[in-house]
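INPUT
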Amino acid sequence: MLKTFKIGGIHPNDNKLSAGSAIQVLPVPQEVTVPVAQHIGAPAKPVVAVGDTVKVGQLLAEAGGFVSANVHSPVSGKVKKIEDFIDGNGYRKTGIIITVEGDEWVETIDRSIGIKREITLAPADIIKKIGEMGLVGMGGATFPTHVKLAVPPGKKCEALIINGVECEPYLTSDHRLMLEKGEEVLIGVKILMTALGVHNAYIGIENNKKDAIEYLTKLAASYPGITVQPLKMRYPQGGEKQLIDACIGRQIPSGKLPIDVGAVVQNVGTAYAVYEAVQKNKPLIERVVCVTGKPLQKPSNFLVRIGTPVQAVIDAAGGVPENCGKVIGGGPMMGRAFTRLDVPVIKGTSGILLMSEEESKRGEMSPCIRCAKCVSVCPMGLEPFLISKVSMKGDWEMAEENHIMDCIECGSCNYTCPSNRPLLDYIRLGKGKVGGILRARAAAKKAAEEAAAAEKK
Amino acid sequence: MNVVLITIAVLVVLGLVASVILYFVANKFKVYEDPKIGEVESVLPGANCGGCGFPGCHGLAEALTKADDLSAIGCPVGGAPVMEKVAKILGKEVVASDPKVAVVRCNGSCDNRAHKLEYDGAKSCAIASTHFAGETDCSFGCFGYGDCVEACQFDAISIDEKTGLPVVDEEKCVACGACAKACPKNIIEIRKKGRVVQGTARRVWISCVNKDKGAVAMKACKTSCIGCGKCAKVCKFEAITIENNLAYIDPEKCKACGMCVNECPKKAIHATFTPPAPKPKPAPAPAATEAAKPEEKPAEQTNTSKE
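OUTPUT
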């Protein structure tokens, strides 16, 4: 009996069209746009000026706060402009635009093909190195990795969980990475285990990737402490909370973090990036991007330099077909549609999905029939119909009472609704508002406490 | 018979005891409220719209009663007549404030802005703004999904089917500001209604909020403000300022002369009246026009080529 998480979940058709296509290296484009905000948290601050010559791997912008990440140059060439560009949502973001000249790398990066197995660095140094190399969660959430690895005092990490689930339909970048860079991923996991001081790591992989399970299980035999955990196919198993439940059977209480149950979750893509950063001194300057979709000519997986235009990646896979209705950054469940295709690939772009005209249309919305399907599929045990309704009405107190902040925005409710109601759209709106209220409340409380403390003095 | 008498006696005694307790409790926990608050509240419209900035009409009545003078606060819905009544009750003087109205600062109709994308999510501006910047190239303009219409309690704002933009009914609008708060793009502004000439309240405003550089804004929309500054130059009252490639007319300084309306090469300045025909153009001294020419040329040229 395969393991899985306990409540909710859906079974969309997995459509892994590009699973059999090996990772190809995409040629370096003529110009790249490197956004300074590719991660959750404060944007990075540029440290180069217009006209500077940069090498591959050179620091372009340094972390702009505690939760932030360094940004390195993915190409060598000249800094053409540092200005606002229009991102995938149509809003303006600051980016560093570099004209490519040659392909000269920073000398400290080890570009040899050989696998470096022994880990020489101490835990604190590993975390520091990961921070320097600008690593972020590669699954799509782009949370700075070094922040996640810094376990707060008083808490203890007991298990490292590696996310090789790739539960989003269509996407295959993690799958290919496990198959082609299995050894490196395992060394990356070992490094993460050293950094966290844990002895157990579980690599959760869904059962639709049998070859990856087999291959990694074979390799893991020589890595004590690492267990490959085959999981039943179910969306959203790749969600942090769901994966912890599936792998080690622990459930995270409302409002708590994985570390509160002694777990840290990292993506296989991150594990590979950790290997490259720690063993080869290579910053996060390229990533595997899966280009897929039914109307696409050649669904493929590419190793793409950060900052490459999305258009160039699609062109390499056969170009945008005529009947294409939507291009999505990420998977079909949680991804966001691009408003334009001249936007760059960033650290969190795990996939580019093209949908045909008829696939991409939402059905017409009709009234809620109280079938409670959304309730039964919600992996967080919420009542999506209710919290979306109260968000629609602007009753933020009621939304908070009904744990709107626990929503992981997986979209299972939207997927299952027979009335095609945009449940998640409203929940997301409500989350934004309630989040603002909670932050304001916390700030007011802090100010009051400080005032009281000052008075005592 | 006895049973009936005893029952009555018991109930009477119980009632007396309870009333005595209640009397003392009521005295002990009495909350004093100025009777004037109730009186003031009774003359307020009672819509509880919150347009005054207080939580409902009772909140405003309290604030009015406490306030030393009534110049800073007032009921936008009731306007001058209601405030006069309030002043009478409170024995204070009312300062006549200028009536205000909501103004939509976007003119990006389907003809002016080409729609390049199609959004089929929940029809709400607040939600759409979390997904993307808009269906057109302009990331500042109106979505047209009607959050302002939803927010209006006075049925004063509606979406024009032809243009896809909100239209304010000047008669019904009470300038409570609910629409301005609801708009995620901050397009709606509460402005002075302006002085009334021949039955129409005269006001002039820049009907655009695009802060992009001129070239980008020009491509995005036919009637976007490109920040060329021609309006600021022509204004005799220094009412127009340019900031972030966007002009703004200060309603306090603007005399609604309408000079800028015809000057704007992009027709981004709107007025509620027909501005004077550009007669004075040939009139000014030739030296002045010559000096201004080289700067104005590029803007004019691009404008004519577009047309």
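end of record. The first strand of chain B starts at residue 100 and ends at 104.
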